[in-house]
Design goal:
The protein is of the alpha/beta class and 310 residues long. It is 43% helix and 20% strand. The protein contains eleven helices and eleven strands. It has helices spanning 50-69, 81-84, 89-100, 109-124, 161-168, 176-198, 211-219, 237-248, 252-256, 269-282, 295-305, and strands at 2-8, 12-19, 27-35, 74-79, 105-106, 131-136, 141-146, 153-157, 205-209, 234-236, 287-290. The strands form two sheets. Strands 8-7-6-9-11-10 form a six-stranded mixed sheet, sandwiched between helices. It is globular and about 45 Å long.
Length: 310
């Protein structure tokens, strides 16, 4: 069957269309994205602005039309931290349903971590052993660890690249003291949960998912997207330690000129790098592998697991 997953994230609204059936690898058929950056459309009270709500509804309506045009049989719509944590989240969901007919499922942070872990496990297979997965989104950081398909521990922290950029890194380039303050805060947040993972032992493999990790790996010399999904890519702690001060001294325009960095993500790349560096350092990781599957694929895989075989 042809499935669509509609991901309303903190940075983008992304419709991924796949051809899939139980027991088989879902094959991407079409991708439709719109950058909204909901994490940056919050007012002083933490609510998504009226303009943001209307833009969101219009974007979802457009995505559903694309899904219809592409012959999608079933759309799995979900939202993550931007709506989950918005002061007016319930009102936003109600408005979206009234305007578009789409009933968004709001995932908890732990659900995000668990579904992302499932996707990474399926991609890497059982030979990866004890797996540690880090995912930097626009609004939150998810960390999960385990030996099976369901992780032993999964947490979500409010350390998304978009959220931190909007709230903690004013200026272009940002003030050096603001960068130092954010670095301290990020490390303190992650350090609080490290012991929850360390009790399970050292992971056999560590992977990073999400656009942030992919772009950081690319600027550090990893293979281009054009070289295919199956080309192994990694990101080292050493390269992050070298790139963080360089990114801190660059303007958004300068970052957007780096290999693999899109104009829309360039501003928040520094915040993402600070989170990535802290994660690798505090978990004692020298290098991680970039996994091309993440939350959207996890949602699809979970749905396929519950379909009867034909």
């Amino acid at each position: 069957m042809r499935l669509g997953v509609l991901d309303v994230g903190s940075n983008t609204v992304h419709l991924l269309v796949v051809d899939a059936h139980p027991g088989a690898r879902p094959l991407p058929a079409y991708s439709h994205k719109a950058e909204l950056r909901l994490a940056e459309l919050l007012d002083a009270d933490g609510a998504i602005s009226d303009a943001g709500v209307h833009r969101l509804a219009a974007t979802i309506r457009e995505a559903m039309q694309v899904a219809e045009d592409k012959g999608v049989e079933d759309v799995l719509p979900f939202a993550t931290s931007a709506i989950r944590e918005a002061a007016n989240g319930e009102d936003v969901l109600r408005h979206v349903t009234e305007e578009t007919g789409v009933d968004l499922q709001v995932l908890s942070g732990e659900d995000e971590a668990r579904l992302t872990f499932l996707a990474a496990r399926r991609w890497l297979g059982w030979s990866a052993g004890r797996l540690l997965v880090l995912d930097i989104g626009g609004g939150s950081l998810e960390i999960a660890y385990g030996l099976d398909e369901d992780p032993d521990v999964a947490v979500s922290l409010p350390l998304g690249a978009g959220r931190l950029t909007a709230g903690d890194l004013p200026g272009d380039p940002p003030d050096p003291e603001a960068v130092r303050a954010l670095r301290r805060r990020v490390r303190a947040e992650i350090a609080r949960v490290v012991s929850d993972f360390s009790r399970y032992g050292t992971p056999d493999q560590v992977v990073g998912t999400s656009k942030t990790f992919k772009q950081l790996a690319r600027i550090a010399g990893a293979a281009r997207t054009a070289e295919g999904l199956y080309t192994q890519r990694e990101l080292t702690r050493k390269s992050l330690e070298e790139w963080v001060p360089r990114l801190a001294g660059m303007s958004t325009r300068e970052r957007s000129g780096l290999p693999g960095v899109s104009e829309g993500r360039a501003r928040q790349l520094l915040a993402g790098a600070l989170v990535a560096e802290a994660g690798l350092d505090l978990f004692g990781v020298e290098a991680l592998e970039i996994c091309p599957w993440a939350l959207r694929e996890g949602v699809i895989l979970r749905r396929l697991d519950h379909l009867p075989e034909r």
